[in-house]
Amino acid sequence: MGTQQRRAREKEALRQDILDAARELFVKEGYENVSMRRVAEKIEYSPTTIYLYFEDKASLLYAICEETFAKLAKRMEAITRDSQDPIEALRAGCRAYVDFGLKNPNHYKVTFINHPQHPRDDQRHLKEASMGMKAYGNLRAAVEACIRAKKFRQTNVEAVTQLIWAGEHGITSLLITMPNFPWVKKSELIDLMISTLIDGLRA
Amino acid sequence: MGTQQRRAREKEALRQDILDAARELFVKEGYENVSMRRVAEKIEYSPTTIYLYFEDKASLLYAICEETFAKLAKRMEAITRDSQDPIEALRAGCRAYVDFGLKNPNHYKVTFINHPQHPRDDQRHLKEASMGMKAYGNLRAAVEACIRAKKFRQTNVEAVTQLIWAGEHGITSLLITMPNFPWVKKSELIDLMISTLIDGLRA
Amino acid sequence: MGTQQRRAREKEALRQDILDAARELFVKEGYENVSMRRVAEKIEYSPTTIYLYFEDKASLLYAICEETFAKLAKRMEAITRDSQDPIEALRAGCRAYVDFGLKNPNHYKVTFINHPQHPRDDQRHLKEASMGMKAYGNLRAAVEACIRAKKFRQTNVEAVTQLIWAGEHGITSLLITMPNFPWVKKSELIDLMISTLIDGLRA
Amino acid sequence: MGTQQRRAREKEALRQDILDAARELFVKEGYENVSMRRVAEKIEYSPTTIYLYFEDKASLLYAICEETFAKLAKRMEAITRDSQDPIEALRAGCRAYVDFGLKNPNHYKVTFINHPQHPRDDQRHLKEASMGMKAYGNLRAAVEACIRAKKFRQTNVEAVTQLIWAGEHGITSLLITMPNFPWVKKSELIDLMISTLIDGLRA
DNA sequence: CATGAATGAGAATTCATTCAT
DNA sequence: GATGAATGAATTCTCATTCAT
User: Fold this and answer.
1) pLDDT digits (tens, 9 = 90+) for A135-184
2) pTM greater than 0.85 (yes/no)
3) Which contacts (CB < 8 Å, 24+ apart) does range D21-29 have?
4) Residue C190 to chain D, least CA–CA distance (Å)
5) Which of B175, C149, D77, D140 has the fewest CB atoms within 10 Å of its CB?
6) Where on strand E do bases come within 7 A of a protein Cβ?
7) Residue B150, domain extent
8) How close is the nearest chain D Cα to the Cα of C183, in Å?
9) Are both B46 and B7 inside the same structural domain?
10) What number is the average pLDDT over the span D158-178?
11) CATH of the domain at D106
């Protein structure tokens, strides 16, 4: 029994090592530019071993995205829960979203930008969609709080949520895909987006 | 005599065929995942032939972007020129931008969404930057007009331009890459983005 | 246990097969005109497999040369060591060199005749140079012994060594590359070269 | 008639332009590293045009070699004819041979070193052989003169000729194929070879 | 559990050459 | 006589993946 447990723990540990190595490489160099061999070398195992833990390269990526998505959702939840003022909660949530994207540009790319529509891999696609919906749900809740508190002229929760998401996403994706563009100071641009939208929505 | 003209036309036609095929494939599968061979097969020519029209794969991408930028710039110029009121001009320009993206999703995707960053090809990079800057310049002019007419509280032309671009881009790219998401009515969402931003900027 | 040894032996055997195939092809058709695919076909393995044993095409060539140099050096060392009289040692060494070339024409051709000059691969170049210098060192030692024994009028060790090498090489390479030329009896020609050079050098 | 002549002259002129361009490129960069396109660009004609004058790339090389061989033969003839003393004539002829090789390394390589034995191209091969024999004939005549003048102990004309050829070739080919080897001063090495051989042959 | 060995498929690109005009 | 357009075949090398052990 103790043996089995230890085995299971060791197995799980290696799985995590693989994920950690892959995450670091994917994020640093981009999914397409990282080979399975490179991941294997980083953990000092043979490439074959990775296939004992993950079906293929895409699964590796998928597992990483799932993990990171969970983190994003958790973080946003925490942030919006903490704040009393619904507007401030929304503002903080937005900032967290953008920050998250900029800190995990390759995850963000994979999930929200390039979003490879694998032909016939519908199952995976649905799962990904559900991850996205969960994050969207958090934002929606924050928006709803504002509307319920009569902070906004606009009362269509869905429309406002999508509006804000689009704004966040616009900033995040442009900053990621065009890093060489002569942007004004990034943090100011982000704040400007968030406050302009909130101001525009205000009663 | 007529022969030369016909030849020139045929040559130009093939060039366009190549561009069309490449654009479609780049969008559907991502620049990195499309081989020259695949492009060649799509147009039913040999891979070598492509190299008679484009120096290399990157040039193909570059040509696609250039085309897109030119089209977009032309359309926006026309629209902003017509309007008297600077705010209305800006509004119209924004709508034109989003419309352009939605009507030419492949062009838009390749140029603004999937656009890969080439490492160290500085010369090409500068050229691309300059093309982008031209399109950006149009928007900037419209924003400047508003600011000069004291319509906005914010007076940092660069920041406001980038803000609006990000808003437009957020809407456009999300609508393109996530067509299955349960969006509210698209045109309303677009208008909401534009007017919310403008309202938020107003004095 | 035995398994590991067998494996190691098999691996070494395949490595040798690759080397043999490559050497033969390089000689017959010239390094530049032989593709990795051709080598692979000859040994009936996939091209990829070669890359498990050799980093790239140049490494293949390098390994062939290394082998040749090692063989040649070993043989010459043995021969020159045995002789008491320095002149006789030199003579025997020269004969051994030519014999080696004629008996291993493929090795000789690849290493000393067709050897392509790689542009700017300095690191590899230095290594090759060092291998060559070792073989050259043997000859040099034999020459030095003659000079120290005051057998030669000429006292520039380097110059005399290079002279003799050139003489040996001239005979060896012509006999190998022009087998259809109406040569006089080969062994007499070889002896004539060696003794004429030695006579010419003598005090 | 005059027209025809002019045409013929023009045609011949272009043929020469092609040869000149090809020679320069082959000599500078090596046969394998020069493409037909490069040759065409140099003369500012289309690649196709070259094929109106030469059957294929090999023919181009062949024509160049033929030309150069004729030059070598002529030069050696002149030199050996001028000299009164047969030994000096031989010495001068040898120097001319080596100089020729070092000044036309790519010709020398193609003709005497790499000497690609084209499968089944016997006709071309025979021609090449005949060119070689002509040059060999010159050397033989010079050697014969020395022997007839009783300058040499050795009286086997064929053997001595081959000996000297091998010596010349040894120097020439090593200097060409191993330009990075730390040779002593080249001209001294060449002189040393020639005089050592002659001294060794002397009565 | 882990791996060494092997591979099929494919990448971008270049080349000599031909054909219709 | 000259060429623009086109191509088939080839190049080196990399990758994700599998199989026997």
Assistant:
1) 788 899 999 999 999 999 999 999 999 999 999 999 999 999 888 889 99
2) no
3) D22/D60, D22/D61, D22/D64, D23/D64, D23/D67, D23/D68, D26/D61, D26/D64, D26/D106, D27/D104, D27/D105, D27/D106, D27/D107
4) 8
5) C149
6) 1-21
7) 57-201
8) 7
9) yes
10) 95
11) 1.10.357.10
